[in-house]
Design a protein that fits this description.
Layout: E1 2-6, E2 14-17, E3 27-36, H1 39-46, H2 49-54, E4 59-60, E5 64-72, E6 84-87, E7 90-91, H3 97-100, E8 111-112, E9 124-128, E10 132-134, H4 141-144, H5 147-157, E11 167-170, H6 174-185, E12 191-195, H7 198-207, E13 211-214, H8 220-227, E14 233-238, H9 243-251, E15 253-261, H10 273-278, E16 282-285, H11 293-303, E17 312-317, H12 321-330, E18 335-339
Parallel strand pairs: 11-12, 11-14, 12-13, 14-15, 15-16, 17-18
Antiparallel strand pairs: 1-2, 1-4, 3-5, 3-9, 3-18, 5-6, 6-10, 7-8
Helix pairs in contact: 5-6, 5-11, 6-7
The structure holds nicotinamide-adenine-dinucleotide (NAD) and zinc ion.
The site of nicotinamide-adenine-dinucleotide has 27 residues, from α6, β12 and α9.
Subunit structure: Homotetramer.
Catalytic activity: L-threonine + NAD(+) = (2S)-2-amino-3-oxobutanoate + NADH + H(+)
Domain Alcohol dehydrogenase-like N-terminal: 26-134
């Protein structure tokens, strides 16, 4: 089968013929229809310091996908060929305290599809049945391919009550933009989003942000005054991974404000701790998606009108993957879909 493979320790990926995955007794085999390129794939493609210490080579990459089940292992009774599914990209151990308590998103022994084990940028991918999420047959395939990053947005956004609240999102990358859509869907009042790339802010506005802020030209304090906000934002979602954005966010929260942090800042990022303490802010780190409450909420929100399709800026055949990775590296693309079904 065709697959996008990191063959050697160095930049780039190659399109290669590799053996089809082996299907274990607890696995399902999925014929991949659509995939999407994630920031993680860009780290691997560009072979940055994180990728160098994380990715064993050779490795088939990719973890955002939708496909159709074509075969199931002998232990699998809940799935059958023909079902349309995506996969949770974190494979957990199933045996640690958190896993046994049903808190699988807190497993300390997670391995990643397309990171530590063969991924989905391939004609076929095999997954444990416990990582499979079934879609309604009529879901838009491109949207279904985005459930992994949409799950990051949903997991983060739904940490706190949003109905009638004012939300600040720092970073209008694909995940921040989708989070804006989720916050509006969930009944927030103001959904203000920051970035320094106008194209990305415009996209976030299409998805549901009520006010966009280019931090190179405007301050959040001015925007709060313009919106007539008394104190500050009730809920903050950090989705840039940038330390300055994180501090902007902390400075813009109301007393008692609640912050969920998905973006991954530099390890030694300094924080204005006095504001955190005297204003009694709550800060919570977010990783991955809840298995499977986040997935349930995603399916239900998409069914009830949440539209994230505008986040897709490029669609192309997987054989044109170099153009897709180039568009991502340029910084203006949001989600790039690679099509595997012909
Ligand atoms: P992205 O890099 O595409 O988007 C980040 C955006 O933040 C960019 O558009 C950038 O211009 C903007 N930005 C940079 N500095 C800023 C500043 N000072 N103020 C405002 N905006 C600023 O990333 P993404 O794919 O949308 O993911 C968002 C973040 O979440 C990334 O940091 C990513 O690594 C992280 N992430 C974490 C998890 C997790 O499980 N914790 C999962 C996926 C992604
Ligand atoms: Zn575990």
């Amino acid at each position: 089968m065709d697959a996008l493979v990191k063959r050697e320790a160095g930049p780039g990926l190659s399109l290669e013929a590799v053996p089809e995955p082996v299907v274990g007794i607890n696995d399902v085999l999925i014929r991949v229809k659509r995939t999407a390129i994630c920031g993680t794939d860009m780290h691997i493609y560009n072979w940055d310091a994180w990728a160098q210490k994380t990715i064993p080579v050779p490795m088939t990459v990719g973890h955002e996908f939708v496909g159709e089940i074509v075969e199931v292992g002998s232990n699998v009774i809940d799935f059958r060929p023909g079902q349309l599914v995506s996969g949770e990209g974190h494979v957990v151990c199933g045996r640690c305290r958190n896993c046994m308590a049903g808190r699988r998103h807190l497993c300390a022994h997670t391995s990643g599809i397309g990171v530590n084990r063969p991924g989905a940028f391939a004609e076929y991918v095999a997954l444990p049945m416990s990582n499979v999420w079934e879609h309604k047959a009529d879901i838009d395939l491109d949207v279904a391919a985005l459930f992994d990053p949409l799950g990051n947005a949903v997991h983060t956004a739904l940490q706190y009550d949003l109905l009638g609240e004012d939300v600040l999102i720092t970073g209008a990358g694909p995940i921040g933009a989708m989070a804006a859509a989720v916050c509006r869907h969930a009944g927030a009042r103001h959904v203000v989003i920051t970035d320094m790339i106008d194209e990305r802010l415009a996209l976030a506005a299409r998805l549901g942000a009520t006010r966009t802020v280019n931090v190179n030209r405007e301050t959040l304090a001015d925007v709060q005054a313009e919106l007539g906000m008394q104190e500050g934002f009730d809920v903050g979602l950090e989705m840039s991974g940038n330390g300055a954005a994180l501090n902007d966010l902390i400075a813009s929260m109301c007393h008692g404000g609640k912050v969920a942090m998905l973006g991954i800042p530099d390890e030694n990022t300094a924080l204005d701790w006095h504001t955190v303490i005297f204003n009694m802010l709550t800060l919570k780190g977010i990783y991955g998606r809840e298995m499977y409450e986040t997935w349930y909420k995603m399916s239900v929100m998409v069914e009830s009108g949440l539209d994230i399709a505008p986040v897709i800026t490029h669609r192309m055949d997987y054989r044109d993957y170099e153009a897709g990775f180039a568009a991502m590296n340029e910084g203006k693309a949001s989600k790039v879909i690679l099509t595997w079904d012909r």
